[in-house]
Amino acid sequence: MDGARLPGTSTDDADQIVAHVDMDCFYAACERLREPALEGEPLVVGMGFQPGKRHGAVATASYEARKYGVDSAMAITEALERLPRKIDAVDDPDLDVAEAGYYRPVDMAFYESVSEDARSILHDRADVVREVSIDEAYLDVTGETEWESARQWARSLKDRIEDSVGVTASVGVAPTMSAAKVASDHDKPDGLVVIEPGEVRSFFADLPVEKVHGVGPVTAAELGDLSIETAGDLAAADPDVLEDRFGERGLEIYRYARGEDSREVTPRGRPKSLSRESAFTEATSERSEIADRVRSLASSVADRARSKDALYQTISIKVVTPPFDVYTRARSLPGPIDRPALVEDVALELLTEFDDERVRKVGVRVSNLSFTEGEQASLSGFELDPNDSNALEPPEGQSTLAATEWGDDGDDERADLSAGQTTLDEF
Ligand code: DCP
Ligand code: MG
Hints:
Bound molecules: 2'-deoxycytidine-5'-triphosphate, magnesium ion
CATH class of the largest domain: Alpha Beta
Helix content: 25-40%
CATH topology of the largest domain: Alpha-Beta Plaits
Number of helices: 17
Largest sheet: 5 strands, mixed
Radius of gyration: 23 Å
Number of domains: 3
Order of helices and strands: EHEEHHHEHEEHEHEHHHHHEHEEHEEHHH
């Protein structure tokens, strides 16, 4: 686009402006939202630290806890050795309370709700958003800013996330997806790094090779055998040698190290569900206010379904009551339909169960989607709350703690990611 290209830069990497957004120590940041006293403290979120339990892993650690060597995926026993629990240190003369930290269990329902708030800001700031995980997304911002103002654009995005969600995000802006990811990681936490077209290689030159997208610790060690220590070494390596050793992937990391990455930011595939939710400024028990909100969410979700040529068979609501109790209720219809009035009616009917509750947030979702044949799906973005509709229907009388049900996502890419996250289940 005009003005997006600096004079003297090659055209092949100047076409796209990509932002990569990744929240800082995300689960820990969420815990701090509801427990502000944890701010500035070493904080570990994970499983298996409670008395009598010793199996589990760290999901994340605050930056203060990382100073003690505690980090994601570490066995909880090792984390406790490096950073004992405050609560244990108080009673144990051998432990120093000042060198101890706080531990909190994983609460996916809450993190998903925070993530949803942050994602709605991302979708508001860019038309094309590729959500990669609960705390990470790529944005195509070519149409939203120009290189000259990219830093201010990213700053205002960061400020908005911090002001309205209360967590900090690190943002990287670059001409390619792989470079944007490196940029967001470069100055964490609270980072903001812009790599302009033509600067990728010089920016990468001295970075350790494992910073290159696609290079994990194993590949880095193998590259070390070839005396390739930095991204600059990789960019200057013989591509034939890389291809011999690593196959097609060798060429891919070679290109990434050189700043070559032709991937465009695209939203992910067909949504499994469409939902919208909205928080009240303060928890309310005003029935008409809650019903009005549900009505407008229902109509917005039905509109979106229609715009995507999606028929739905399941309609559900989500209700969040103070402090952060999340409930979902669903009703399935005999067949797929496109009937906005029914979405509203069913949502309001499901809401009646919560007539005596104070409510801080409500959501409406349609799922069990089918698409009219030949139509292109999800043109305007990917919805992260797709879901297996079965999970939405709790056994009679059981109040679902929505946990993964509302926020979990059937998309392949994300499924892979959570499989790699050792900490969600105890082992
Ligand atoms: N996560 C997990 N198990 C892992 C890695 C991550 O459960 N092995 C969870 C906890 C993290 C969240 O996913 O908070 C996001 O992952 P990130 O890799 O982005 O890590 P953080 O956001 O915690 O920290 P950073 O500031 O480095 O992004
Ligand atoms: Mg993160």
